[in-house]
Structure formats: C-alpha cells, structure tokens
Amino acid sequence: MIRALTGLSTRNPWKVIAAWAVLGILLTLLGQALVHRVTQSQSGDFLPAEYDSAAALRVAEERFGTKPDANAVTVLVARTDGKPLTATDHDRIGAIADRLGHRRVEMPEPKDGDPAFLSEDYSQTPRVAPALVAPDRTFELLTAQLTGNSSDPRMHDFYRAFRDQVKDEFAEAGMRTGFAGGLADLVDTTEAEETTATVVGLVMVGLIVLINILVFRSVAAALVPLLAVSVVGGAAAGTVVGTALLTGIELDASTPSMINVVLVGIGVDYFLFLLFRFREELRLRPDRPARAVAAEVGARTGTAITSAALTIVAAFATLGVATFGQFRVLGPAIAVSVLVMLLAALTLMPALLAVTGRGMFWPSRALGREPRPGTAARVGDLVARRPAALVLACVALLGALSAGLAGIRMDFGQTGGAHDTPAAATSAEIARALPAGVSDPATVYITADDGRTLTAQALDALPTALAKVDGVGRVGETVLADDRTAARIDLYLTVDSQTQQARDLVSGPVRDAVAAHTPTGAKAHVGGTAAIFADVSTAVDHDLKIVFPVAAALIALILLVLLRSLPAPVVLMAAVGLGFAATLGASALFFQHLLDEPGVNFVLPLVLFLFVVALGTDYNILIGDRIREEMARPGPARAAVARAVRHTAPAIATAGVVLAASFGSLAVNAAPSTQQIGFATAIGIVLSAFVLSIVLVPALAALLGRGIWWPFRPRRSRDAGHPAGPAAAHPRHDSVSVR
Fold first, then answer.
1. How many CB atoms are located within 10 Å of the residue 210 CB?
2. Mean per-residue pLDDT for 617-641?
3. Could you please report the per-residue DSSP string of 176-213?
C-alpha cells in the first residue's frame, strides 16, 4: 500500500503537486472563513448534562432566555472630574442606558480582503441595564449582553463598534467609561499581543528555515518543506472545519491553532526524515535517476512515518472516550489532521523530491563527498562503551525533574494574561470598591417540580443562608422567570471567580447551603464560572484515569506490531513514561514553584501525555527500527547500537529542535494556559529527542543486546539494510534508515 502510493506519486509528480496545491489552497480559504461558525469558547457547554453547573446553564437558557453564546460586558461609568455621582448623574446614566438598550448596533463592514458573504452578521440590539453603584458612589456599573462567538474576529469588530458608541454617548454627558468582562478582556488582550504574535510567528519560521539551511546547506531544502507543510496544514484544518460544519459538532476555540502548531511540527519532521534518507541514497547511487531514488526513499521511510503517525492518531483518538466535550472534540480533530499529513507524507513529499531531484540540495556539494564522523558518531561510540553509566545518568536527570510532581496543583484560571490593558485596569478599579466577583457572579437557579409556581417569599430562607456563607460578599435579589416556575439568585463572591478559592467555595459551602435550604418540591443548581470549572476539574480527573491507560495500551500495541518484540515495547514505553513524568514535573517546578503561579493548567497533563508519549514514541520508533536493522548485520550488538545512533541521531536532533521551536513559540502567548502548553511541550520534545531517543533507549538496547528483540530476533545478514558498493562499508552519520 505504501509502496503503491509513493510509486504512483513519483511517476506522476506534477499531477500530485497540482492536486495538493488546488485542494490545499481551497480548503485553507474555506477553513479560515468558516472556522468561527463551528467553534465556541463556553467551557460549560462541553460538560456532560449530569453535572450541576451544566444543569444550571440549561435552566438559564430555557427559563431566563440566556443565549448559549451570550457575552456579559460590564460597563463602568464615572464622572470625568472624579467626584461622587449625584442623583442627577444617576438619572442621566439610567436614561442613556435605556437608549442604548433600544438602539440597534450595526455590524461594521469587513476588512479589506475578507469575504463578506462568509462573515457572520452580529448586528443586534444589546441588552443594557443598570447593575450596581459603588459604595463611595464614585462609579456606577451597567451590564450589557452581546450575543456572538467571542473567538470570532468579526465579533471583536462588533464589540468595538458597541464600545465606541457607548463611549460617545457618555462622553457627551461629561462622563468617562471603562469596560470589563470576558469579551472586553479578550479583545484588549488580542490587540495588545497582535504585534508579538506576528513577530513570534516570523521568528519561528525563520528559525526553522535557518536550522534546515545549516543542516542541508541548501535554500530549497529549507523552504520547500515549510511551504508544503503550510499547504497541507491548511488543507487539514479546512477538512476538520468542513467535517464539523457538516456534522454539527462544535470545536473548542483553541483547536484550530493547536492543529496548526501540531501539523507544522510533525510535517516538517516527516519531511526531514525523507530528506536525510534521500540525500543518503543519492550519495550511494549517483548514477540512478532521482525519480527512482525518490520512489525508493518514499517506500522505505514511509513505513516508519506511517507507524509514527498512527501512534499519534491512536493517542489522540482515545480522547473520543472522554466525558469532557473539549477533549472529546480535540482528539479526533487532531487525529484527522495527522492522517491528512500522513497522506501528504506518502504522496506530496515524494512527488516534490522526484521533481526537484538533486536540485533540492543545491548549492551544497555534500552529495559528492562522504561526510566525516561528527558528534553523532562520538555519541554512538560513548553509548556503546558506557551504556550502564548513561542509563543511570538519564534516569537520575529524569527522576530529579519528576520530583516536581510532589504537591502539583491544577489551575483552571482563564485570565487573558499579564498585559496592562484597559479591561484589566477597569477590573482593578471595580475590585477596589466592590467584591472581587461582582463582574462575574455565581448564580443559583431554582426550578419548581411539576410546573408549580414559585414566590420570592417562599425562597427567603435560601438567600439568607447564602449570605451567611463565608466568602459570599453580597447576595442579589431573587429574580423570578416570566412563568414563575424558576428563580435566579446572583452571588457576588469576595474572591475572583477564576481562582481556586472560588471553585472550592462554590463546590463546597455554597452547594451545601443550597442543598440544605432549597424548599421542598424544588430543585436548585449552582452555575457561573467558578461552578463550571469546579465541575470541569471533576470531569478532567475522571477522563485522565480513562484516557491514560487506553492511550498507553494502543501505543504499546502499535509498537508490538511494528517491532515484533516483547521486551522492546516495554523499554520504549518505560522510557517515554519517565519522560512524561519528568516533563510534567519540570513544568510544575517552573510555573508553580519558581514563578509562584496557582498551579499548572488543567489540560497540561493530558496534552503532555499525548504529545510527549506519542511524539517521543515516534523518535523511539526511528531509532529502534534502525537498531534492529543494524543488529541484523554481523558483529557485536553494541557496535550495531553505535552505528544506529550515528546514522539516526542527526535526523532526530534536527526534527526535535524544529518541533520544539514550533511548540515553544506558544510560550510567549499572553494566555497563561497557552504559555504553559508551549513551554512544557517544547521541554518534553527536547527530552524525548536528546535524552530518550539518542541516549537512553540505545543505551538500554546496548545492555540487553539482541535479546531486546525476543522472540523474533533479527536474522544476521552480511549486507542487511545496506546496498552493495564501496560506500556501504562506511556507515554515515547523517541518514535515517527505516523500513
């Protein structure tokens, strides 16, 4: 199958390239235009229905008309001279709020180049109403409800139009305004980091190009992989978006960016594996047509690439069994994307090699000479001479990093970052005068059984009890639904709603008070940000206990089939398991202990497990398969390990640096969760490439000898895995040889 695909591609390279170019560009454009129609950022909507906060969301939508994509914006209004508001000022603010609540805000025209017919029209009449007055009367707060996908840049444009309209209205009355809330903070943060994101993206691309130029001494070998991967990545993202649109599945807002980072990393890796082997074969067979060499390289390297890709697919596909919807959608989406990249690795990439031929490495003269043994050869010799010492050193290093797991805490904070934005300044001003949770209250929803009506008097005991809970700063008035079969009570906590204290408060004392004082014949549910993430924490803990063993079992099965050995998969899985523990421990040491943050982001353990285990296993597959090939040749097992490291280490090292740089670019993002994912994944990939695959696994193989391949030990053959000829007698240090 693999040989048939690569053979077809290298026989018709221009047709394959043209097909990928057309399909890739089309899917990229459609994906970019439609992605925000299939994404949503409300974490509560990803919770299973049986969770308390999910039930609260349903009551809010069904009984109080709250829309799933409603965004609450808090508007601060104060006098420009800083004096306390007067009764006249309050009347004026109320009148302006009433006008704003009856005025339709039109959607701004799309920016140049954006297809208007594909853009979402968020034109609407916002719901604006007075909310609270500061105790010292220095400001009054209004609440505004804007409906739309908060991750959509077009929604950001609409928010800016609304914000400008509000500013102008109050400026005419001699008052200043400030804006806070999730949407306001997101828009301000996006604006603040726009330049940084652009610079980081350019630096990442430049770094990948520079690395490839230094390795191959060729501009084409540096640029062609990046261009090809960009086209394929766009096609993969468009495929995921189109599938979600057709099936009605909603993606998490972070999924498209995660797909892009994953595909750039692994796509460049796969291309590097092909390029290293292509260069090796061109050196060995200088008279053979490049197209024939490309076909052979695609077929031989394609087996390892397929196994590596299927490892990632299997790992992420296990997320389909998760209960938390954000995981359940993310896993299959990345799995589908990786399959698209695998198809490109077996078709587009060999076709590009067939077309460019030896020109891929111009102007380098490396094809005409045999490279001298370098660092990889010295490392291979060291591994063969001192395997026990290196195993102990690697285990000591990874064990020391794993010590960071002691006392590790999960952080569910969703704040936008450390930017000094107008929204952050407004939130700080509000927090100085009112309870910290005033702009994002927890809410208790009460529903009557059998359609009976409720009265505020019948519910008096509940708000009274809630007011006595330590940590509840203020209890709002009881608001009845139009049909009086449901009621809502807002709770303004004394701590920020996105902190661990808030989650502990609502999941403990608040829910206990609600359970004890809900009237007979009624049901009550606690909702709001703190309650949602308290339930998300429970769901994540449940999913980790399921996903980890299932993913590990699938990866082990793939290794068993590929390596045809019982000890080898155990060695590889033990190595990547230790690498995962070390990476997560290092992340906890850095973020939780060194930077004194609340903990590591709640998705980090799962993301690290999938990426570090899956991608780490990819590199181990490459080195393991080469070790098996070399052990099929006559001679001591340790000499075979030394040759395997010498041949494979440069490709693994280059691929590891490229992939780490790709993920590391996320570490400068303003969002703390994205920073942690970028930093931790980059560290994990570096450990996987340079510690596990280049040192630890080969050292263990040197200690175990050919027994690592029991019961199907490789048959000894004088020229196994090496073509005949003078060059074959001199193992090279810069090639990847896999079957």
1. 12
2. 85
3. EEEEESHHHHHHHHHHHHHHHHHHHHHHHHHHHHHHHH
* Calpha distance 262→259 (Å, rounded): 5
What letter would DSSP give residue 416? -
Query: 3-state DSSP call for residue 477?
Result: coil
Q: What is the mean pLDDT of residues 289-309?
A: 84
Read off the pLDDT of each residue in 544-572 and give the average, rounded to a whole number.
Answer: 82
In angstroms, the Cα distances linking 183 to 150, 395, 563 are: 6, 46, 51
Contacts of 198 (CB under 8 A, 6+ apart): none
Specify whether the backbone of 471 is left (phi greater than 0), alpha (psi in -120 to 50) or beta.
left
pLDDT confidence bin for 116, thresholds 50/70/90? low
Whether the ω angle into residue 711 lies within 30 degrees of 0, i.e. cis, is yes
Tell me what the pLDDT averaged over the chain comes to: 83
Per the CB < 8 A criterion, the answer to whether 371 and 732 are in contact is yes
Helix (H, G, I), strand (E, B) or coil at 58: helix
Q: How far apart are CA 642 and CA 634, in angstroms?
A: 14
Residue 739 pLDDT level (bands cut at 50, 70, 90): very low
Task: Report the Cα 218 to chain-centroid distance in Å.
Answer: 32
The torsion angles phi and psi of 463, rounded to 5 degrees, stand at: -65, -30
Mean pLDDT of 634-658: 88
pLDDT beyond 50 at 465: yes
- CA distances to 217, 284, 285, 691, 730 from 280, in Å: 15, 6, 9, 25, 12
What is the Cα–Cα distance from 481 to 445, expressed in whole angstroms? Answer: 10
Decide which of 451 and 564 is more confident: 564
The 3-state DSSP class for residue 218 equals coil
- For residues 195-201, give the mean pLDDT: 72
Contacts of 253 (CB under 8 A, 6+ apart): 39, 40, 41, 150, 151
Is pLDDT above 90 for 162? yes
DSSP H helices, 406-524, are 422-433, 461-467, 500-505, 511-517
pLDDT 10s digits, 118-159: 567 889 999 898 888 888 999 999 999 998 888 788 889 999
State the pLDDT at residue 719.
Answer: 46
> Is the pLDDT reported for residue 714 higher than 60?
yes
Amino acid at 85: L
Round to the nearest angstrom and report the end-to-end CA distance of the chain: 14
Helix (H) / strand (E) element for 410: namely strand 410-411
Please give the pLDDT value at position 734: 38
Radius of gyration of the chain (CA): 30
What is the DSSP annotation of 282-347?
Answer: HHH-TTS-HHHHHHHHHHHHHHHHHHHHHHHHHHHHGGGG-SSHHHHHHHHHHHHHHHHHHHHHHT
Tokens of 390: 């290196």
Cα angle value 718/702/626 (rounded, 5°): 50
Phi, psi for 482 (deg, rounded to 5): -60, -40
How many CB atoms are located within 10 Å of the residue 232 CB? 29
Residues 661, 208: contact at Cβ < 8 Å? yes
Percent over 90 (pLDDT), the chain = 23
- Taking CA atoms, 305 is separated from 111, 377, 573, 619, in Å, by 41, 24, 18, 10
CB 714 within 8 A of CB 627: no
Cα 52 from Cα 176, distance rounded (Å): 40
Tell me the longest C-alpha to C-alpha distance in the chain: 97
